[in-house]
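Ticket reopened. Same input as before:
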Amino acid sequence: MVYYDEFVNTIIENAWQGIAPTQEECVKLLSYDPASPEACAMRGAADGLMRNRTGNAAVLFAQIGVSCHPCPANCSFCAFAQEYTQMPAFKMSDEDIVAATESFTQDGDLFGLWIMAMADYDVDEYCRIIKLVRETAPSVTNIYSNVGDSSLEDFLKMKEAGIDGVYHICRLGEGEVTNLDPKARMQTIQNAIDAGLDVLNAVEPIGPEHTPEQIAEQIMLMRKTDPIQTGVMKRINVPGTPFEGTGEISHYRLAQIAAVQVLAHADVEKLPWIGHHEPCEACYVSGTNLITAETGVNPRDTAEETSASRGMDLTDCRIMLYEAGFTKLAKGDGTFVDLDVDYIKEHTH
Ligand code: SF4
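Engineering reply: fixed in the latest deploy. New output:
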């Protein structure tokens, strides 16, 4: 006896057998009310599938926002967009970059470190910073870029400087609520692949106006890039941007979208790590397994130093993963550490 639609039952049974729903089926899954028995069932199934495929492991990431200035990409949802920003230009000193890298990596359990700069970054200066970070971080931590559209040549330079992969997305509303060209965004991802770099991405920034069709299309578009990490991010309506005062989706709805994304990867050989923003436990019991500590600037925050505002530190992150039931942390070199109360205590600074 099942108490929800036979359609969802079939999707779940298929997922356990390594068969993923199609884009059209994802649309249907995304169309259920978040509190329906069907949505509850898909969240639970995605959670079980993810924990089964990863050995109940999660990953710690961190991001250092090394610079910001009014950004010409002018994304309507971003605290740095040139038409809306209220933030002063900022450039982190080398000393602070090294200190942040040491602080994030001192315990040897950080899987990945994103180094974020603006869309119109200077590639040579960025590579200089990457070298600094690579020399500071242990080899168990992968370094990932988070910058604007880039050529194959630029990615080859970044690879030489020390990056392992690239966070890049063709986002919801790209070219409509941003000044960027969706084709250039996808070409950048292809350039990263051609440079032999790992791809990391997400379905973002999700607002209440996005339809199941748009979200399912985005899930599949990002899936096609064969990412080692993907995820979901709700739009935060940053004060001073055109979205200020408009609606945001709930964590509960975000968790449903994460669950559909996990099910949509049921047929891949290695499940990508699945992240979400903003941090919430609802997503961790719906298939996500990645958390990010942040310092420096943050496009979802108007504070110059996000670690004192919206960003979380690594102890907060470990506690959240532990409370969400994860028993292991995966490191960037493929090894694991046990995540328990003693481990958290020993690594609280
Ligand atoms: S989201 Fe990125 S590209 Fe867009 S305005 Fe902000 S910093 Fe620039």
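DSSP finds twelve helices and 13 strands in the chain. The longest helix spans residues 37-54. Please confirm and we'll close it.
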